[in-house]
Amino acid sequence: MRRQSLLLKSANFLDSINRKVGELVSWLTLAMAILTFAIVVFRYLFQMGWVWLQDSVIYMHAIVFLAGAGYTYLVNEHVRVDLLHQRFSLRGKAVVEIFGVLFFLLPFSVVLLYQSLPYVLSSWSVWEGSNDSGGLQAIFFLKSFLMVFSGLLILQGVAVILRSILVLRGSEGG
Length: 174
Fold this sequence. Notes:
Elements: H1 2-46, H2 51-74, H3 90-125, H4 139-168
């Protein structure tokens, strides 16, 4: 019973990380809508425009997708191939989840994390910025979200495994 409690607490903690990140980046969608409206107003009413403002919308869009992926997985809104999954029992679903995380999600996330590290470090070493005149000079920051993406998916994958173990042990998994 104590081990199940530890598994549940660990899964809840990992879930809380992605929940907080998801709630935080969800505000970027509002900011993107406001900025897009402002860009249109400035361009068509005042014939004014700034590359950095347009870049900021693109950056926010990328951050929403990359940092929000773990949250999307947490709330089960990710793309799933549900040919048989919905017909499985709770225990069958738990086995499929463990298999999927161990053989697909974790290897993909670990390889992406490993492969993106030199790419991101190289970008940071030169403070890589936009090639466009007046563009945001923070491509190094944006590229870092490849690692954030991988890390948050790994955390959520571990949480899914822990909950699936609880299901297989006879608990509902929280």
